[in-house]
Structures
1.
Amino acid sequence: MLPVSYGLLPEKQMRAMVQPAPGVPLQMQERADLSLGDREIRVKVSACGVCRTDLHVVDAELPGIKYPIVPGHEIVGRVDLVGRDVTTHAIGDRVGIPWLGYTCGVCRFCREGMENLCDRPLFTGYTRDGGYATHTIADARYAFPLGEDGDDVSIAPLLCAGLIGWRSLVMAGNAERLGIYGFGAAGHIVAQIARWQGRYVYAFTRSGDVEAQEFARRLGAVWAGGSDQLPDAPLDAAIIYAPAGALVPAALRAVRKGGRVVCAGIHMSDIPSFPYDILWQERQLVSVANLTRQDGADFLKIVPQAGIRTQTTAFPLVEANEVLTKLRTGQILGAAVLEP
Ligand SMILES: [Zn+2]
Ligand SMILES: [Zn+2]
């Protein structure tokens, strides 16, 4: 039987880290009961990964942020309430809630299998409330069933760093020598898939970040160095996860003729002008936006096959501001995860 009452929890049990307006820190707030639509599920959050995109939301670097906003789009939790029309999820199911929160289903991009480019989308933790909270609401159609393998904290970074990482890796094509610029949450997951696929991984970190370079070598990178360095062999493709526009010409210089540079972030500082010479010879420069539900299905199937292990550090939800600062200043190895 589906519950018909949507107001089961006393107010005090629901809390969230909320940003009320641009430029102010997140504040822990008790939230009134979340109202649930017919196609929605309420999820009791057990872990929520901290993604670089959360920094772009908190720093108001993206257009159209919904305020007050609860960030967080790498959510693992259990369904504790289902809307009337939901047949795909039941109370108690473990689910993952990603960045893609809703698509219109009727625009040309949705109809042509490119729902990641939907004209009227909603994104979790950006234009609808996300997972820096004890509970969140999601459209059931965009929540992935997660099964029972693996612990919640380890799985959380897969929901964006892993998923967008996967999409950007597919976009990189059949590159044997793959450069990864920015070896954080996404980079360390993609490196493991790339290795499993038999590619050679070249990891580029902030100049002098020896710890991240050693981390990359431990995960099988054949080369690791600063992003101001050139690798010992030309790359077939490079993926840029760090939000620094200066990495675009750096990566173009590192790829061979006909090679491809994939920009995988949602936001980047301006790209400095560069000589046409480094794009010439059929090098390609592309970007990756969002994800499709199919990306999620494909990627979650690969996770156990490739034996992906995430490196995570868990923090209490109430420390979200401090964790964002750590991410901003490069103090997180692998991925940070919040636990309510
Ligand atoms: Zn659409
Ligand atoms: Zn993300």
Note: The radius of gyration is 20 Å.
2.
Amino acid sequence: MKKGWSVCQGLFVAGALLAGCNGQPSQAPPDRVFTNGRIWTGDARLPEVQAMATLGDRIVAIGPTESIRALASGATEMIDLAGRRVVPGFNDAHWHLPTRRTADLVDAGNVKEIQRRLREFAATLGPDEWITGRGWGPSDFPDNQAHRRYLDEVFPDRPVLLTDRDGHQTLANSRALALAAVTRVTRDPENGRIDRDAAGEPTGLLKESASSLVRRLIPALTADQVYRALLAEMDKAASFGLTSLQVASGSGASGIEYEAYQRALREGTLKVRFRVAVPFEREVTPARLTEFAALRDRHRGGLLTYGIAKGMLDGTVDAHTAAMLEPYAERTDTGLPMWTQGDLNRVVTAYDKAGLQVQLHAIGDRAIRMALDAFEQAAKDNGTTGRRHRVEHIEVPALADLPRFKALGVIASTQAMFASPDAITLTNYAPALGPGRASHSNAFKLFDDAGAVQAFGSDYPVFTMEVMRGVHAAVTRELPEGTPAGGWYPQHRISVAAAVQHFTKDAAFASFDEADKGTLEVGKLADFVVLSDDIFAMSPARLHGVKVVMTVMGGQRVFQR
Ligand SMILES: [Zn+2]
């Protein structure tokens, strides 16, 4: 609560704007009054109220319906919440902007279905265009082994490149490999691997940086295509109750995505608040760091902000590229760390010294430890505190490292849908780890129990950005159809309230926005969501079906069902 706000008998009002509790007429009546709701504020001092008044983009009063209604003038718009559940606006702490129209292969399940979807998508393209898709998993293929032959069967002459669900490996057909001149003699690039069969021929599977050998041939998008993709994604986000998105692509400083966000800010079309990460560069110079800090300082309006840098330390479990302390189950390899500890410490320390927050993708226990070690070293070398550096994903932490998040003030940035026990998780992911490590992977309760600040995201488009699907996954650890019975390692389930807090208050803390966002309090931004059902009083098994009825961002209705 900020200075100038007053409290009286369960009614919170902005003292500077409204006369308040003494019955005096208000000086500046609210624009809107929302009454008869079941409002979960996230604020422990006043956790549940019925009504809110907003003026401009802020909440100016909160309390019982009768008291709040009394603040209205003739010009105030009255909105009856009809007893519905209201929560603070959702904040996705790890999101990406998908810019290219591509075949959706999520949950295809088998080769026949992948081929069917690709044919359908190809029919919408010009005859010479590249066929791209995303969302496949190893378990879609016989023996969990993706191979170019399945694509050659349908497309012998047109180039095809399919990105997997996690975005860390691609499958190219023979035509695409030929165009890129990838053959048995092509060497693996740095931080990448060209998968080969027993005879040494490329299988078409390209891991990590090897994907760019083919991907760089796909024609670039235009600035207008990216801008239109941004507009469409904002509509989608608002329909899921998202009022803030934290973009984890490291694309924030320049280029076609940077232009799209800047244009949206200029043209007043932002209907979601964005915080966009800048790159975490191995050879970063002092001038570059100054440029990143200046970008942050120029954008203080709350709709588009900067100030964080995104780096990658390893790959994924499904591709066996996440960096592990011990080999993958029944294998000898331990993944693909992208940094040496020395280099990482040097670069993290440079960003930290420049006052920038750092977020590091680290999935395997080795990479997670490297991230924590680098953050610890930077704080020591620079004498800094409160930087709120973040580890992204943290899927398979060593249990001994869990207390370090709280001790070092490092944010645990996890993704709710990663606990969803789908076919890829059960038949490829968990077996790759083996039961010991699988039993504590994506175990959000462990971070809560260790006292860490845990911010939830989606990693969209890796998974859906539909927040209630994520809440359902974190709370039940089951699929919507109720499998596996009893949940996947159900000891790691968390409560609905904890899941909502991770998607609101904790996500706001992760971006230094706790004074403005994350809870519904007088003086904070009027960002909130009206839901179809009371998520705190229903069977968790049905949470995935809860719909957003209305989304309010900065006092404005940006979505209404
Ligand atoms: Zn991501």
Note: Confidence is low (pLDDT under 50) at residues 1-5, 16-26.
